[in-house]
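ARCHIVE CARD
CATEGORY: sequence design from structure
SOURCE FIELD: tokenized fold
FIELD CONTENT:
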């Protein structure tokens, strides 16, 4: 790629290779989860959301020129709006009711905000429409948590933080104050009703649908604190400090974040990935990006070293028959996009190459 900075993370080449292909939907080659289920369980739009943020970050510190930035971010938007990714039969311009698809819309809204940051106002009308829809969905709920999927009761606090971030991003680009209608009421609700008493950490799920709903979970907190760091930085600092105090641990010489508090009987889930000696793979991987956003270089490096070693191992496994399917757990498009976004943030905030 022309004009690529030496500080561009190595995962960027993998992302641009993906964007350079003719896109007709994600496959099991792209997403580990699709080896087991035909649908991507939302990992497709989440991968694209992280991809878009990474592109904006790299562009912001000069690791990507304007022309390439526009090409790549446009590619991300086109994938996100593709019929295989969107939950609607019609194209969004023809979809009169956006419905209760908060999860897809939160990530699409982040992508559209990233597009406007680099490339201009082509999708501003759609961005505004989704922003206003997500705001209304949230404010219409007594618990201030928008529905994430039709006919699904679960309301994840981390996803509500992502919804607010997407609205905040629209505000940053357009000089509006829409997120202000939601930020303080939502934080007040979290403090009053969704804070775990012994740790002060925000709980995972609002409606008590799961056995772990009232617990703070590692993958949820890492995800949530990252988004909080943008629209509620003081709250993010408090939650990050408590997250490290109660769930950051060293086992067998390796640092990582727990998925559950010590003593919890809960097991791993598709969201958590494997849990080894209490340390969650997803919690630690997501926390890499959070540490970068929090400018916590010490924690970032402690997470970065084992993560990089594991990724190298899995990439070598990808060339071995039978093991190559397992290797995608840490090398698929979602994992690569999260790692790229984390590394780019660290470079932006520290000026250090990785």
């Amino acid at each position: 790629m022309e004009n690529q900075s030496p500080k561009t993370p190595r995962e960027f080449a993998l992302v641009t290779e993906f964007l350079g292909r003719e896109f007709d939907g994600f496959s099991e080659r792209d997403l580990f989860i699709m080896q087991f289920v035909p649908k991507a369980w939302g990992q497709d739009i989440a991968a694209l959301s992280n991809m878009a943020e990474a592109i904006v970050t790299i562009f912001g510190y000069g690791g990507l020129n304007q022309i390439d930035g526009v090409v790549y971010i446009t590619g991300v938007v086109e994938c996100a709006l593709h019929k295989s990714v969107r939950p609607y039969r019609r194209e969004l311009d023809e979809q009169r009711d956006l419905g209760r698809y908060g999860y897809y819309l939160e990530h699409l809204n982040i992508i559209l905000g990233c597009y406007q940051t680099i490339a201009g106002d082509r999708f501003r009308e759609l961005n505004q429409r989704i922003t206003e829809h997500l705001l209304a969905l949230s404010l219409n709920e007594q618990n201030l948590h928008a529905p994430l999927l039709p006919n699904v009761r679960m309301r994840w606090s981390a996803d509500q933080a992502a919804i607010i971030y997407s609205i905040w991003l629209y505000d940053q680009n357009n000089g509006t104050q829409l997120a202000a209608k939601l930020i303080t009421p939502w934080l007040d609700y979290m403090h009053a009703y969704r804070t775990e008493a012994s740790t002060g950490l925000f709980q995972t799920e609002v409606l008590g649908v799961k056995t772990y709903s009232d617990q703070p979970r590692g993958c949820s907190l890492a995800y949530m604190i990252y988004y909080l760091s943008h629209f509620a930085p003081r709250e993010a600092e408090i939650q990050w400090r408590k997250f490290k105090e109660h769930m950051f641990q060293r086992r067998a010489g390796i640092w990582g974040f727990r998925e559950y508090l010590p003593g919890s009987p809960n097991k791993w889930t598709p969201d958590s990935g494997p849990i080894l000696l209490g340390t969650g793979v997803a919690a630690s991987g997501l926390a890499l990006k959070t540490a970068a956003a929090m400018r916590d270089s010490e924690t970032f490096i402690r997470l970065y070293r084992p993560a990089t070693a594991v990724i190298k191992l899995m990439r070598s496994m990808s060339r071995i028959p039978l093991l190559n399917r397992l290797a995608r757990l840490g090398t698929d498009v979602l994992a690569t996009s999260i790692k790229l976004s984390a590394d780019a943030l660290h470079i932006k905030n520290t000026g250090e190459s990785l």
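CARD ANNOTATION: The chain has a mean pLDDT of 91. The chain has one domain: 11-350.
SHELF: design records, drawer C
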